[in-house]
């Protein structure tokens, strides 16, 4: 991550199925650079179940919008040629590209196969609720439209350990596939007894052919696209040792700077801490506990203690492994993990991830450009532009915290040699307030004003570097020296 880098998640769940995202991203590259965006997280760029699939129903990892499969050549976001053009233009603008990688499951198989399986309890996948019997499952992937280009590997039932549908009886259930060395992975989340199985047809990384094929694929993919990093989807459902091996192998092939961040969706810090230990801290993780604090504060501000905002979060305990975020495609309204942060609180939340010393902040496309679908998120580009500009120019150096009140909190950044200006941040989740904060004796006699324009207060810095900073109801202000 570059100094004061910013990642942007460049998609939301309800984007139109028009194949235009890669071209939009290419055209937007220079604007993103000016904002201070240093990396773009793109959606899954591989062929999925159909063009209206956001990308997580993965069909063929080798089809980046090149082959006529699943009803089209393009993906939801465009063709392979357009994808590569967008990546090249982003690189020309010194913006790195992180690809969303979905390795937990495969979807929309080409043929059914017959094999032995047993039904398990959805609430406790370790508990069998039927006798073993033969089912007809969608597990054969031939990729005939690709015709063996790039790889001749064909997926079959023995490469999976779970599925969700028996074609013969048209019954939906969670089926544990039976066979030699077949069981749920034991190195996964313990929710529902064992959370190896998530959806579709579940990949079995204990199978040596699957293990080797996936490592071969990631090598091909990075060479083909020249991406700078990966966002690993649903890692709590995948063997932790496999994720570690994948990241280590990728860095061995492409350099230690190759970036990896994983999505481990849990608010339980001990669980996340255990996972980071198991993967030897080789990847970053999204700070889901911090996101849920934003969510809670936005819904019940009077009872939420803002002084504890950063306690028991990844960014506070593991700052070098934390990707901080406010919203994403899973948390937005009407999604399976919906935990939407109310609009009024978002300026406070974004200030909390953009203007602090620790964490790698990620801006959500839907917050910047707005979302489609029901319960739309309104675009908030104006405030985000200001906050990103402040991150670029002012949020450097030592950080002194004033997290000493249930509702009114603040911190100062004292600047460094290259960025000596510094800033003072104050926010409140309830009524207006004020806080005396010290910005350093070097600023004595200066007048500081709110760069966000939320208050017109003028704060004079005294001989000791103190100022009395004001904030309006349910708002955030960021004070800098008036030029």
Automatic annotation (TrEMBL):
Domain Glycosyl hydrolase family 13 catalytic: 5-391
Keywords: Calcium, Carbohydrate metabolism, Glycosidase, Hydrolase, Metal-binding
Active site positions: 233, 263
Cofactor: Ca(2+)
InterPro entries tied to this protein: A-amylase_thermo (IPR013776), GH (IPR017853), GH13_cat_dom (IPR006047), Glyco_hydro_b (IPR013780)
Molecular function GO terms recorded: calcium ion binding; hydrolase activity, hydrolyzing O-glycosyl compounds
Binding site for Ca(2+) 2: 204
Residue sites binding Ca(2+) 1 per the record: 104, 196, 237
Biological processes per GO annotation: carbohydrate metabolic process
NCBIfam families: PRK09441.1-1, PRK09441.1-2
Family per record: Belongs to the glycosyl hydrolase 13 family.
UniProt protein name: Alpha-amylase
Species whose genome carries this gene: Acetoanaerobium noterae
Upper lineage: Bacteria, Bacillati, Bacillota, Clostridia, Peptostreptococcales
